[in-house]
């Protein structure tokens, strides 16, 4: 009975992977599924995310699956799945899982995003490599070059962009705190620096602006109200995500035309 259950797991896994290969060209066009990896001293943390490249709000479903094959060739499958709402040009974290470096066997993580009709529209996959007694993430999943012509440094590390701030009041510092919390929670990954600046404005108010590469994306006159600053932080990050998506689309189009 155990062998039959293991065989069923293997067959399901192979069908899923074959289907992913055949339909890969249809994935991640409008809705991008991406698994991000964070490493600490003992664990990998994998976070599944979804990004909407269209301006239209949409209801979707995700399935975040972890396949394990232990040293005795026993196969197991665990998954997190749920419906979710994704605003236009937005990005959200869906689910996360932690895996110890010392866990034995072969581990594969798969994220699939489905539309309302049950059709897969976004996907990502990471296969951990067992290196002696430790698991390791493939080099391609650890770093992502800014463009296809950019060579990786010898140490394999490319730094992500930073959220920089130059504020002068408590309201400005609070806005930065709320903005960065949203930035972190939505798992934004970009090589671009985001700059938050606060300058004296009208009367006793200050003006807070958010820009990328000198491109102003959002600005407003500050208020000490917490809900107002949180709303401005969300709006500003939405503007940043849209701008970064447009940059990526321009880069993709220029490569295609070339």
Automatic annotation (TrEMBL):
Provenance organism: Aequorivita aurantiaca
Segments of skewed composition (Polar residues): 130-147
InterPro entries named among the record's database cross-references: Curli_assembly_CsgC/AgfC, Curli_CsgE
Domain of life: Bacteria
Keywords attached to this entry: Signal
Pfam families in the record: CsgE (PF10627)
Protein name as annotated: Curli production assembly/transport component CsgE
Function, in words: May be involved in the biogenesis of curli organelles.
């Amino acid at each position: 009975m155990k062998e039959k259950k293991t065989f069923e797991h293997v067959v399901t896994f192979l069908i899923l992977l074959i289907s992913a290969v055949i339909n890969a060209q249809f994935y991640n066009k409008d809705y991008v599924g991406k698994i991000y990896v964070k490493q600490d001293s003992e664990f990998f943390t994998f976070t599944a995310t979804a990004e909407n490249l269209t301006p239209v709000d949409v209801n979707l479903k995700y399935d975040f699956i972890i396949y394990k094959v232990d040293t005795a060739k026993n196969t197991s499958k665990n998954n997190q799945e749920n419906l979710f709402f994704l605003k236009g040009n937005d990005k959200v974290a869906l689910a996360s899982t932690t895996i110890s470096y010392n866990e034995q066997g072969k581990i594969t993580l798969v994220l699939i995003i489905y539309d309302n009709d049950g059709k897969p529209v976004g996907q990502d996959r990471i296969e951990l490599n067992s290196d002696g007694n430790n698991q390791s993430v493939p080099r391609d999943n650890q770093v992502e070059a800014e463009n296809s012509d950019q060579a990786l440094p010898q140490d394999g590390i490319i730094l992500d962009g930073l959220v920089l701030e130059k504020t002068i009041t408590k309201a400005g510092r609070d806005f930065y705190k709320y903005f960065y919390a949203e930035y972190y929670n939505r798992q934004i990954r970009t090589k671009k620096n985001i700059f938050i600046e606060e300058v004296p404005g009208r009367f006793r108010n200050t003006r807070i602006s958010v820009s990328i590469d000198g491109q102003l994306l959002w600005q407003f006159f500050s208020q000490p109200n917490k809900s107002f600053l949180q709303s401005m932080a969300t709006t500003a990050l939405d503007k940043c995500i849209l701008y970064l998506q447009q940059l990526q689309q321009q880069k993709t189009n220029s490569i295609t035309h070339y």
